[in-house]
Design a protein that fits this description.
- By secondary structure, this protein is mainly α.
- The chain has one domain.
- The chain is built from 4 helices and no strands.
- α3 packs across α4.
- The radius of gyration is 11 Å and the shape is globular.
- The relative contact order is 0.20.
């Protein structure tokens, strides 16, 4: 599974820009807040973590390149 450091950084920047909390993401995606926090921090690097990062990038339309 590829490393998701760049994707996690982009998701976290997007969340900060749009004032989205980890608890809100957990609620939106029906997940446990601690899992979301672990995935976004990189503490858990599992296929499920990678899937969440990819899903968030797609769902929020986070661009690959900063404009």
């Amino acid at each position: 599974m590829p490393d998701t450091v760049n994707g996690r950084q982009r998701v976290l920047a997007y969340m900060k820009e749009h004032d989205i909390s980890r608890a809100q993401l957990a609620t939106m995606y029906g997940m446990n807040k601690q899992d979301v926090s672990d995935y976004l921090s990189g503490r858990k690097r599992t296929p499920a973590a990678s899937r969440l990062i990819i899903t968030l990038i797609k769902d929020f339309g986070i661009p690959y390149e900063r404009k």
